[in-house]
Amino acid sequence: MKLTTEQLDLISKEIITGGIKYQDLYEELLDHYITAIEDRMENGMAFGEAFEEVNISFVNYRPPLIERYYYDVRSLRKVTQCSSGLSRLQKDYERNLRSEIKKRHWQIMGNYFRWPTIVTSLLVGALTFQFAYLVPLKIGVGFFGLLSFAPLLFLLPATYRHTMGYFKKERKFINSLKWTAIGAQASFSLSIFNCFVFIPRVVGIELKAFSPQIQAAIIATLICFYLAYSLSFYQLYRERFKVKAT
Question: Helices marked H in 135-174 — which ranges?
Fold first, then answer.
């Protein structure tokens, strides 16, 4: 039994009111609601009763209790935190998907150093060393800095599609659970670049203090890492990470 437009709107509003803010999770939950409600209506249940039965399973969603420790001036106390509902479900999916994407990303990175791909990696490393040795230091560092933004640039096409889809009323949200998780992983590249720029200043060691060969080796290593890091995101973006509602 197919649901009416008014019934679908009611389900959609309930999901959004529950705190969902990602398009892919919203679509998965909407599909789950529709399928479960239609199955119940096929067995003779009224829409209102079927909707309440399905919705209550999400409203009463409770993950395992989380214990936290904090310190105040009197004692160290243990606090048990428990939350429920769609908002809690969303946080759990977000955490799990980020962990899955991070694990898969480093698997892709590791493949560059396994046979036979490692042969290509070593060849690229040798060519990069020659490049870093022949060009001025500022150019090598500048190229390294440019590559640190490359993983984030891969997000631009998807961000544009999501934004246009939102304004065309094709999407309920601009945000995507998958792309948010990948974006968090991509920002790691900027953190490394910031460490490379600011840590030497803090400890008082400049790259110019080393011999040209060591300078070239450091720059070449960083450039090779970022080349592999950026290419790994191209593969990561193409893979599908399905958000499954339980």
Answer: 137-148, 150-153, 155-167
CB 215 within 8 A of CB 144: no
Q: Structure tokens of 76?
A: 């160290």
Classify residue 44 as left (phi > 0), alpha (psi -120 to 50) or beta.
left
Q: How many CB atoms lie within 10 A of CB 126?
A: 12
Q: Residue 151: is the preceding peptide bond cis (ω within 30°)?
A: no
Burial of 220 (0-12, 13-18, 19+ CB in 10 A): buried
pLDDT digits (tens, 9 = 90+) for 99-137: 888 888 888 888 888 888 888 888 888 888 888 888 887
pTM of structure: 0.71
Structural tokens at position 241 = 């990470």
- Check the CA dihedral 59-60-61-64 and report its sign: positive
Q: How many Cα atoms are found within 13 Å in the side-chain-facing hemisphere of 151?
A: 30
Cβ atoms of 232 and 105 within 8 Å: the answer is yes
The phi, psi pair for 63, rounded to 5°, reads -75, 175
The reported pLDDT for the residue numbered 40 is: 92
